[in-house]
Amino acid sequence: MKQRKMNLKKWDFGFRYETAIVILVWWGMAIFNISKGKSATAGLCIAASVLPVLVFVFDLLKRHSDKWTVAANWLAIVLMPAILSITWYILFRNILQHVIFKMFITIVFSLILLVMDLPVAVVAIGQLRNWLGRLIAVCYFNMVLLSSTVIELKPQGINVLITSGLMAAIATFLAAILIAKRWSFSFNPDLKWQGSNVTLIWLVLFCLIFAFWAEFCGQGNSLGEILLKPDLAPLKPTWVSFCRAIEAGVFEETNRYLTILALIAGFAYSRYRVQIALIVSAIFFGLLHFTNLGGQAFAATLNQAVYAAALGLVFAIMYLYTGKLWLAMLYHFGIDFLNYAVNGGVKAQVWSGTLSDWVSSFVLVLVPVAIAVWMMTGKRKQVMDENIDEKLKTNEWQIGLS
């Protein structure tokens, strides 16, 4: 089915209009601070406005040559998501401190968060043709989007939708739809099932058993206790952990989806494209967890990253084998929510170097890797190849230099 082409002129206009608004906001804050006698803060506002001005000027110049286009795109990718997030954060925090109707302001800024990065996604990231450039751009872009969680909002309730990262995850999903379309992919998170029902049952069964073992086993003083004795303590789910689990499922699987698109386009002719898509996307998923370094020890973070990379193989297989992105999201949500419910909330990882730590880490890495190796052979790999072909059917991919 032929895709409707996007109206790029409207998106270009929207991007420039948004950039101009950001510039005016920073100038407005500078004038406000001057009126309050805060010349130093006003100077910082003027200095900060230089960055969106630079983006605006380069965007106007990009029509002159391909080199200007490449420079303008990368400048927008590197600067605008951060500029938009900082501007959004400062305005939201300051307005919230001076109004009574805080709920209304929260809703307004939540809606702004959903759409403010869409022009950057279409105009800049959507223009990229080089697979490595796409890979770097989407990972950076998505991580900056998630920075909205740093804002502190009290009380909880609807505010958790922002502080948990859930709104940022939805924004990432919306951006992914547009980016995929700009890369000439048909956004279809639910491809027609064409694999073996028996294999699918085994895969789902493994996922359920693995999730149970990962959350209820792995503790004890002997090898037998660690491997076979579950600790069935009462679950302690919370509204915050529920939202965080949805955020993880939507955000991280959307990021994986874009990563896989970049890889299958870049290695479309390679006989190892399935392995490349699975392994590289899993490595990127593992590296993503090093952002937790600020809140936990290096050893715990390293252990978490290695486990995430191994589990990332399963998430990627679940999407590439079934063609159903929602299934990977659902499983990711389930395993994270179970983890939060068992631990009584979202808590930092701990690594003590005990026998149970080493054994559980070994199992949590070895088992997903073994399943991945099995899935990357025979008819199972063929099904994933066919799903990749289905994705590439509507794609006019070309390996370029932008």
Automatic annotation (TrEMBL):
Q: Which InterPro entries match?
A: Rce1/LyrA-like_dom
Q: Which UniProt keywords apply?
A: Membrane, Transmembrane, Transmembrane helix
Q: Which family does it belong to?
A: Belongs to the UPF0177 family.
Q: Where is the CAAX prenyl protease 2/Lysostaphin resistance protein A-like domain?
A: 236-338
User: What is this protein identified as?
Assistant: Immunity protein
Q: Can you tell me where the transmembrane regions are?
A: 15-34, 41-61, 73-92, 104-125, 131-151, 158-180, 200-218, 276-299, 305-322, 358-377
This chain is encoded by the gene named plnI
Provide the GO biological process annotations.
CAAX-box protein maturation
GO MF annotations in UniProt: endopeptidase activity
